[in-house]
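I'll show an entry:

:::
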Amino acid sequence: MTIISVYASLLAFLFVYLSIRTIRLRRSLGIALGHEENPDMLRAMRVQANCAEYVPIALLLIFLVESSAAHPLLVHALGTALVIGRVSHAIGVSRTPENFNFRVFGMTLTFAVLLVCAVYLLVIAVI
């Protein structure tokens, strides 16, 4: 089993949780499609969508880092930072009023993972 499998699994659990939460809110509000200008529905949709937008590219990049024979501690650090970042972002955006500290911390960690992976992969491609 590869290291990335652990983090992909944890993030899959997070995505399923966010999806179920969104579905339950849809049912309780009677909204089948879209958000019908309901701010709670829109917020739940965006939390789920944000996870769907950032996690795949981040996991792909971490997979490429791991496949390049990177030190396992680097791969674990990237995976851990991504999981913490995504959970933090989801917590921050899910709250009303929004907790910007959690949101900013989550996005900072997510961007850091993306950038560290990108730089690492470029460096090993050039060298």
In short: Residues 3-126 form a domain with the Four Helix Bundle (Hemerythrin (Met), subunit A) fold (CATH 1.20.120.550). Helices lie at 3-29, 39-67, 72-94, 100-126.
